[in-house]
Amino acid sequence: MKQSSEKVYALAFGAHPDDVELACGATLLKIMKEGRRVAVCDLTRGELGTLGSIEIRKAEAEKARQIMGYAARVTLDLGDGKLFYNEENLASIIRVIRRFRPEVVFANPPDERHPDHMKASKLVADAVYYAGLKQLVTTEDDCKQDAFRPAHLLYYLQFKHLDPDIIVDVTDTFHASRAGISAFGSQFYHEGSSEEPATLINRKEFLTGLEARARYFGEQIGSLYGEGLLTTRTPGVTTFSTLFP
Fold first, then answer.
1. Theoretical Cys-Cys bridge with 127: which of 65, 68, 93, 166, CB 3.0 to 4.6 Å?
2. CA 42 to CA 240: how far, in whole Å?
3. Ranges of each domain in the chain
4. Are strands 104-107 and 152-156 parallel, antiparallel or unpaired?
5. d(CA 17, CA 180)
């Protein structure tokens, strides 16, 4: 059996490089600040993006990894604009889950503006389940991997407004997370970028909008900044005073 020496507490999947940083970067920083290890997996190389090349986006993803302090960042090549639901793509994601053996998985939301985000959501959700089936065999470095099913699957929020089930207080990590976002410089507004093709996220107002949403979610829980998450099942409370201090 292939035994993982790369175990992390949280594994965040994104359809494209920068999905994770834009949607839950401050939450991931909060987890790492609590002494837990985090890894990220981009399902595609973002090759269909209007701005930036594959090489540029690869370098930006690595820069973001260094800035954020992830234990690892894996980039799969499942096809930007494709992300077909098939056995091969499921196996690729299952292999990553079994490699890192996370307790918590983050994924794109199931209801979203971008078709790739919804496809990624379904692939990751099903891979989380199938990763726990020992009869479904995957290998890494020619060694059979142990079955493993993460305890929790959470969906972060992207462009479409969805009411969160959980809001994480990210007041202490929000501004630091902006540095991770800034690593993807080819995708966002900067001085002199007005001549580049217009996209939804390279508008000057886009990053301001992200902060406005974080302020809105923070207001809902009495903090300065918040990030919203969707759950796939009702969370239980073991120690009451932990949830209601």
1. 93
2. 36
3. 10-157+178-187
4. parallel
5. 11
How many CB atoms are closer than 10 A to CB 59? 15
Q: In whole angstroms, how far apart are CA 91 and each of 95, 98, 140?
A: 6, 10, 11
Give the CATH class of 10-157+178-187.
alpha beta
Structure tokens at 28: 């991931």
pTM score above 0.70: yes
d(CA 213, CA 170): 12
When pLDDT is cut at 50, 70 and 90, the band that residue 50 belongs to is low
User: In percent, how much of the chain has pLDDT > 90?
Assistant: 76
Structure tokens at 25: 């970067």
8's CB contacts (< 8 A; 6+ apart) are 36, 37, 38, 39, 71, 72, 100, 101, 102
Radius of gyration, CA atoms only, the chain: 18
Instruction: Compute the mean pLDDT over every residue in the chain, rounded to the nearest whole number.
Output: 91
pLDDT digits (tens, 9 = 90+) for 116-149: 999 999 999 999 999 999 999 999 999 999 999 9
Pick from 159, 160, 114, 152: which is nearest to 15 by CA? 114
Taking Cα atoms as reference points, which of 211, 202, 14 lies closest to residue 114? 14
Using CB atoms within 10 A of its CB, is residue 47 exposed (0-12), middle (13-18) or buried (19+)? Answer: middle
DSSP class of residue 194? G
